[in-house]
Amino acid sequence: MSEEPELPPLPAIGDILDRKDRFIQKVYSVIKCRNCQKKYTREFKKGDFTFKELEDEKCLECQKSGNSVITEVYSEWIDPRKQK
Ligand SMILES: [Zn+2]
């Protein structure tokens, strides 16, 4: 007997692929300003990474530049069909 067991379909993987097709990934960076100690989130820019020093970036809170660091980079999936 060398009969291959019949594998069940994998709907979970199909769902994930469909999700990737349909959803838009948005990436954000969390910035901390050492000047005013505030944190804020802005859209990810090319070259961003955690703990990167942002020497040319203005703080959204106190408008001073050169004292900010990225504390976190995160992403979320947005369903374009739910946005109007
Ligand atoms: Zn600031």
Descriptive notes:
The protein is α+β, with helices and mostly antiparallel strands. The protein has one domain (19-82). The chain is 14% helix and 33% strand. The protein has 1 helix and 4 strands. Strands 2-1-4-3 form a 4-stranded antiparallel β-sheet. Strand 1 and strand 2 form a beta hairpin. Bound molecules: zinc ion (ZN). Zinc ion (ZN) binds at residues 33, 35-36, 38, 59, 61-62, 64. Zinc ion is lined by residues 33, 35-36, 38, 59, 61-62, 64.
Structural topology:
Blueprint: H1 11-22, E1 24-33, E2 39-43, E3 53-54, E4 68-78
The site of zinc ion has 8 residues, from loops.
Instruction: Provide the number of structural domains.
Output: 1
Oligomeric state of this protein? single chain
Q: How would you classify the helix and strand content by structural class?
A: alpha+beta
Share of β-strand residues:
25-35%
| Mean pLDDT rating | 86
- Spatial sequence of strands, sheet with the most strands: 2-1-4-3
- Total DSSP helices: 1
- What is the share of helical residues? 10-25%
Write the element-wise H/E pattern from the N-terminal end onward: HEEEE
- Measured distance between first and last alpha carbons: 58 Å
Supply Rg: 21 Å
- What is the number of E strands? 4
Global outline: elongated
Ligand list = zinc ion
Give a concise summary.
With about 80 residues, the chain is of the alpha+beta class.
Question: What labels describe this entry?
Answer:
84 residues, alpha+beta, four-stranded antiparallel sheet, elongated, binds zinc ion
